Amino acid sequence: MQKSILIDTPVEESTTTLAEYRSIQTLRAIAAMLVALMHLIFFYCDSMKYIGGSIPKMADFYFFKGFGGCGIQIFFVISGFIMAFLHAKGETLSFGDFATRRITRIVPLYWIVTLFWAFVLVGSPGVPTLHLINSLLFIPEPDQTPVVGPGWTLNLEMFFYALFGLSALVFRKSFLWIAILFLVINSVFYITGNYVMRLYSDPIVWNFIAGIAIYHVHRSPMIQRESTAILYIGVILLISSIFWHLPDDSKGIRQFLPWGVPSMLIVLGAVSMESAGNGMRLFRINILLTMGDASYALYLIHGLCFFGVSNILLYTLKLQELTNPDIAIIVYLLVCCIIAIAVNKFIEKPSIRLTRKMFSSIHAILRATTRMLKHFTFSRV
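-> structure tokens emitted (381 positions)
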């Protein structure tokens, strides 16, 4: 069988023997670009307030300006799907191995971007020490986003990984227990009003559960027969939200219903189509596969990219005057994508390899120390 290039981690997991799920990589690319496009529109419009330029038409097209937020919903469904896949394929046999792989997948680039933002862009004294530490350790704070804005979703991701690992690997319980734990957390929030529970009880977390369920049903013959229709229905429902859904900062059920449900249908339809051998041209577009590999980098650095190149494109080249605001934003997005691909290749992947070697060395030292202690104890006896 071919080697898949789609699994969550762009290093080790990508060598898992499975010829499917290029659809997952494609969806990750689209989701990341949607989120980046949304933020770039906001950044660009804010810049125009200061330099007196015109606002792009896409920002005034119904509710398209905030539409990219649906990409987060797609990401969360994919996360649940990938966790179920890795567990089914024996990639998560022990909690220690699972935790190591998740930490080394998420942490290196996130810490690099967070520290760069805190010490290079913001500078001293800048970011309060406690806020920086909480951001690095994925600890939610009341009414305050992490140093790197998209980090709030990683707080949820890491919490989901912890629940998944405890449920599946420590207590050896079914995935139903993860859903039960989320219900308990939701109840605790409504009773106590605790801000941490508020984040973890957001309906968006049900996308994780849906992703797990999708993995277990996507090979069903009945679903595979209707997979194309499922995908199209999901896409139509999601795109239709541009015309009637006004996203806001409340998240919650107002975001989950118009975006979460279609995202579940899209992921279910895509992976079922691919498993049935349908739509293969759609899932073999090389540029999307490449961007899928760099999707995490794009998700984290697109804000840095905008602020890093805005002086050149906005003030030196005056790109918005040479073309028009809409084309200027597309150029910004392309620049972000190119930089993300470079970051993925030259920073993200090497940092993952390095941290995994470090963890492996630490593990080897601990094992050697344990053997020495046992030998010493037995020899004394």
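The radius of gyration is 22 Å.
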